[in-house]
Structure formats: structure tokens, C-alpha cells
Amino acid sequence: MLSLFPVRFLAFFLVILGTVVCLVLGITVAAGWYVAALVFLLLTMLGIHDLIQPRHSVKRNYPVIGNLRFVLEFIRPELRQYFIESDTDTLPFSRAQRSIVYQRAKQQIDKRPFGTIENVYSDDYEWVNHSMMPSHIPDRDFRITVGQGQCSQPYDISVFNISAMSFGALSANAIRSLNRGAKAGGFAHDTGEGGISSYHLEAGGDLIWNIGSGYFGCRDENGHFSDSAFAQKATMPNIKMIEIKLSQGAKPGHGGILPGAKVTAEIAQVRGVTPGVDCDSPAAHSAFSTPVELLQFVQRLRRLSGGKPVGFKLCIGHPWEWFAIVKAMLETDITPDFIVVDGSEGGTGAAPVEFVDHMGVPLKEALRLVHNALVGVGLRERIKIGASGKIISAFDMLRTLALGADWCNSARGFMFAVGCIQAQACHTGKCPSGVATQDPSRQRAIVVMDKADRVTHFHRNSVHALAELLQAAGLTHPNQLRAHHVVRRISSSEVKVLSAIYPELEKGDLLKGRYRLKIFEVCWPLAQAHSFQPARSIDLVASEINTGYQAGEKSVEKDAPFDKALQPL
Fold it and tell me: Which region is the signal sequence (predicted)?
């Protein structure tokens, strides 16, 4: 009998039995039983469908009840977020990280009682050493001048700004909220590579125009860069800086296509493409193909924009390619006004899992490499550095600035301020909070004036918290931060200041052939100004390349001084 009616079919048999019983009761007792019979009948039909469908083996073996697996799997992220994960599980942002944004955005108390929830003896725990003589900072509106000396329209950028997020990826109301908040708070809003929409311009907030390989908003009919289309927009007063996107943390080296079905008339108008036709973002730019051509393109955009600061954003990959750009700067004497380093942990957009998890250099190592290369050739004073990659709290900013950045950008932090709940449904068009969707009925959940205030509050309270950290450390401005101000636990019995983990080159070291660090010794000679290709076969030096990007590994050079004053504690 059991072989004819397996136990795994029990639920299916029970709903069949329930259908029959409820029908009998409906006929003999009361008509209300017909409602229950209808429910059981629908479940019976579901069981029959499960048995004959070819796609899901679990449903075929467990008709009716097998569907419960897929229901639980569907709501698993919500169950985990609300009932299982701890306050410090970073998947990708912890509850503690999200909470501090919500609290600061809503002007709520962001203090914590009863001590830290961090394990201060765990590996990688970091802290700032305080001073016995704290400082006092009267002006907490920290500004960095970008383009001074080579631009007729330099820009004083805030120490904390909105990172690149496009209209199309974000809803119209989210863009409105971000820009209105940036206007009120006096900080910059990066447009993302999707072009400048009317929603970016509505409130008049300062914009950084991000130009990707698709040249959206400044392209000709063939998808190539157009001088006239660029100049028409770049000279608008709202546009304060121009940022060429070479790569991004979410998917460096990967292009993308927006399917024609999603290219609405509005998006097509913003991007300068044809409605209903696939919109291509190539993996590489067509306006340049060598390091020298990249810098000539920078110079061209600076001229076409009327002397506004021009720079580029990149996620570091092959180190010799970055070094090739630096060598091109030396050869041409053309330098960008700024460079934004995007860590591989960054990214608001959806991307292939392998790219999200394993492509590109994380922010700390990438930022230190960029900073050190510019110091090593004596160009650091001419070029400002921005940084982005999971920057949420004031301590995140402090550590990033200490490693060499002049300012910080945050994308997901400001998404939280607008109302994002980390549902991780950004790519589905079904964002529950209306932030990452083009569905008009969903995005109406965002009340622009309210969310704009939250954006302003999050920025102001975060910068205020940074100022308090600086005061406690005895400093008066973020530009005084150095890597030795931050300490990291290496093990239960060893700690090091970051300057020992990520040592710094001295000015002009690379020009003198003093490499100090292994990665420069091996990869600097591979770089060439007129090509991104290495000067000789990588196979010949592969065993020498420090694949871990451990900036602290010394060069074989014996006589070079090496951070003697800042050794591990």
C-alpha cells in the first residue's frame, strides 16, 4: 500500500480528500462548505500541475507541499534581514550601518549605549588614536579646491558627496530628492553615466557630469563622442566638474546593454538614443585607446567645458595600465584635475556575480596605489583624489582620507537616506521603496521634499561626526590625516598603524628609480605612455608580481629608507 501511495504524496492526497469531504458537507450541511471545497479544489489542481510539469523535480516528487520550498526561498532575504542576521553582518551592509544612515537622515539620536558591539580583539578591527589635547574646529564645512592652477572655473567640493547613479537605474523621484538635498546641503551630485535628465537640473544642485563609454547626452548618431553636444551641456552653470568613467567597482571591464523594451521615450531623450532600440554601453571608450590619447581627451573636455575641472574615475586592475597613465602625464605634461578611485566593493547597479565578487582591486589597496604613484612622480599636489566604495560612516571617511583621498563619495549611503531598505531588487524594476525603479506607481512612494531633507541631514550629520573624530585626534582639517592615524589589529596579539601596512613613497621616488615597494619595482618598468599593453611579456615576470597587492612588501632595494618612524606598534 505504501509503495502505491508514497508518503511524499500525503499532502496531495489530503487536499483531494478535503475537496471531497467539503463538497459532501456543502451538499448535506451548509452551503458555506463550498468555499472550503473551492480552496481544496484549487490546491488539488496545483498538485496535478506539479505532477505533470517538467521543470521542477521537487514539485514532481512532492506535489502541493513542494511549493512551500519556493515560497520560503522567495522571502528568504526578508526573513534573514529581519529575524536572523546580527547587527554586524555585512550582507552587503549591516543593520548597524543602515541604522546609522537612517538615524542621521531622520535627525534621530545616533548614539549607542552600553558600549561597542564590535569585537575589538578580532582581526581587522580598526580604531583612531586620540589626543590628550583635542582641537576645536569652528568651521566644519570642509572643502577641497579642484582644478586650481589649470582651470578657469575651479570647484570647491565638499569632503562628502553623492557618488555616480544614473537616471534609469534610479527613479525620477529619487534623483529629484538627491539633487534637492545636495542643493540644500552644498555638496555635489554625480549624474552617473546615464546622462543629465531634467530631474538632475530641477533643483539646481551642483552636478558632476559622468561620461561613460556610451557618451550619453554627448554622442552623435553613431554613438561616438560629439564636441558640440558636449559643449552645449558642459557649459551649463549646474555642471561643476566632468568625470570620464573608465571603469566602475560593480563590474570593471564590463559593458552593458539596456534592452530596447526598457528604452522609453524619456530615457532615450536623456541619453540621445532611439526609443525602443537596444542601448549599448561598450566595455571600452572609442574616443581614445592609449594613455596619451586619454589625457588629450581630458584636455579637450576642459577646453570645451570652458575651463571646468576634468578628471576620470576608475577601478584599478592591471597595475601597469594605471602606471602607463602616470607615465603619459609625465611625457605630455597633461594632468587630470582629479581622479576618483572606485573600489571593487562599490556598485549600486546589478552585475554578473563573478564581477561583483572577484573582479577589480578593493578600495584600500587601489587608493594607496594611486596615491603612491602620484607622490612618486611629484604630481600629487596637482591632482586631487576622490574615493568611493562602501563609505557609510564618518570613520569610513576618516580611514579613506588617511589612506590618501581628498574627498569621499557614497552611493548606497545616500540611497539609504532616500529610503532604500536593501531589498536587493534593484535590477527587477520592483524596488519596494521606489528608489530603483521606473514604475510610476512604485516611485510615487518617495515624497521628494521629505526625502531631500533626509539627504541633507545625512550629509550634514556625517560631516559633523567626521569633525568630532578629527577634534578628538587633535586635528583641524581632513587634509591633515595620514595613514599612521589609523590602527588595525592584525591578530589577537599584534596591531599595526596603516602606514606600516600601506607604506608611502616619498616625493619623486619613482623618478629616481627608488621603488621601495615590490609592486612598483616589478610593474613600473612594464608601463609605457603610448599603450596600455605591458612593455614585455607578463609571463616573464608573473612570478614576481605581488598578486596580493600587499603594499607593505618592500622592494629588494637595500639602501632606501622605509617608514622607519612609523613601524608597527
Answer: none
pLDDT tens readout for residues 267-310: 888 988 888 887 778 889 999 999 999 999 999 999 999 999 99
With cell 573636455, the residue in question is 301
Asked if 223 contacts 214 with a C-beta cutoff of 8 angstroms, the reply is yes
Q: 447 near 411, Cβ under 8 Å?
A: no
Q: CB-based burial of residue 124 (10 Å sphere; 0-12 exposed, 13-18 middle, 19+ buried)? A: exposed
Q: Are 157 and 407 in contact (CB under 8 A)?
A: yes
Cell of 478: 581632513
Q: How far apart are CA 157 and CA 152, in angstroms?
A: 16
How many angstroms separate the CA atoms of 439 and 260, rounded? 16
Q: How far apart are CA 119 and CA 335, in angstroms?
A: 44
505 in Cβ contact with 513 (< 8 Å): no
In the chain, which residues fall in CATH 3.20.20.70? 143-489
pLDDT, tens digit (0-9, with 9 covering 90-100), for 251-266: 787 777 666 767 788 8
Angle between helix axes 291-304 and 227-234 (nearest 10 degrees) is: 50
Other CB atoms within 10 A of residue 82 CB: 10
